[in-house]
Amino acid sequence: MKTEHKYLLSIVGPTAIGKTSLSIRLANHFQTEIISADSRQFFKEMQIGTASPSPSELDAAPHHFIQHKSILEDYNVGAFEKDAIQTLNTLFKTQDYVVMVGGSGLYVDAVTKGLDYFPEVDKSIRETLNKKLEDHGLESLQDQLKTVDLASYNTIALQNPQRVIRALEICIGSGKPYSSFLNKDKNNRPFKTISIGLTAERSIIYDRINKRVDMMMDMGQLEEVKSLLKYKDLNALNTVGYKELFKYLDGEWPLDFAISEIKKNTRRFAKRQLTWFKRNPNTLWFDYNADFETIIQGIKNKI
């Protein structure tokens, strides 16, 4: 397949749908490497509960950004965007194709589209806004945002206090509306992205999730969480599969209930993932059981 361009084959879809196995098949087909855009798989202490690729899967194709950080390190989407683009620039010197796989929508978008960039603001502003939230409730912050930045008030998720506080801290810290920083100066990418989505009927997705959670528990998920109990307040561990078992270990929940909550919260997460990824009208969607040659043909047609 001749090409004059560089292509990033971005595999998206809900958790437990089979993205990892497809990414390896595509990497082998195109004789290339894989970049992970799964923000939970960055951390070396979190292997079982994040469904990180197995040693045999990691051996099947070169991977980047798998278990390369510690939960004790501060690593965010902005740092990932910078690192991923640097890695892609290197890979594209010798490759026409690179595969990216991951269910973290914001991290996928950071690589394919670029992030909005905001000025640094004093941390005390957020502390003041958090205190206002605690003392006077979310509505007081919503009213404040309506006054200083009506455009953001009309577009952001007003029921999400963190979104409201983020918008307000930028308004206060910069003296400019939060909305004025959106969709500005995003970097044009020197490659083309072909987005490949895997999906299935909701009942199949949910069944696969339930079976995966049971498999994780059999693999030692509880022991992994036990080893991380003293770090439970870290942001990296405030995630499905860990926070529920922390409640069991703290004596708040029975184990069976904690496992059922992992399944329920993972199903909710999968629903949010699909909502996020369905926003991209250019994604090529395939059934999770689609024939590999059908997917290859879809990529060829897109090129």
TrEMBL record:
GO biological process: one example: tRNA modification
Cofactor(s) of this protein: Mg(2+)
The keyword Zinc-finger belongs to this UniProt entry's keyword annotation: no
Gene Ontology MF term list: ATP binding; tRNA dimethylallyltransferase activity
Entries under SUPFAM superfamilies matching the protein: P-loop containing nucleoside triphosphate hydrolases
Site feature location: Interaction with substrate tRNA: S104, R126
EC number: 2.5.1.75
Residues noted as binding substrate in the record, renumbered to the chain: T15, A16, I17, G18, K19, T20
Alphabetic keyword roster: ATP-binding, Magnesium, Nucleotide-binding, Transferase, tRNA processing
Signal peptide residues on this chain, from the entry's feature table: none
Recorded catalytic activity of this chain's protein: adenosine(37) in tRNA + dimethylallyl diphosphate = N(6)-dimethylallyladenosine(37) in tRNA + diphosphate
Region Interaction with substrate tRNA, residue ranges: 38-41, 162-166
InterPro entries: Dimethylallyltransferase, IPT, P-loop_NTPase
Domain of life of the organism encoding this protein: Bacteria
Binding of ATP, residues: G13, P14, T15, A16, I17, G18, K19, T20
Database matches in Gene3D superfamilies: 1.10.20.140, P-loop containing nucleotide triphosphate hydrolases (3.40.50.300)
Record-stated family: Belongs to the IPP transferase family.
Its job: Catalyzes the transfer of a dimethylallyl group onto the adenine at position 37 in tRNAs that read codons beginning with uridine, leading to the formation of N6-(dimethylallyl)adenosine (i(6)A).
Subunit structure: Monomer.
Name of the protein described by the UniProt record: tRNA dimethylallyltransferase
Organism expressing this protein natively: Bizionia paragorgiae
Gene (name only): miaA
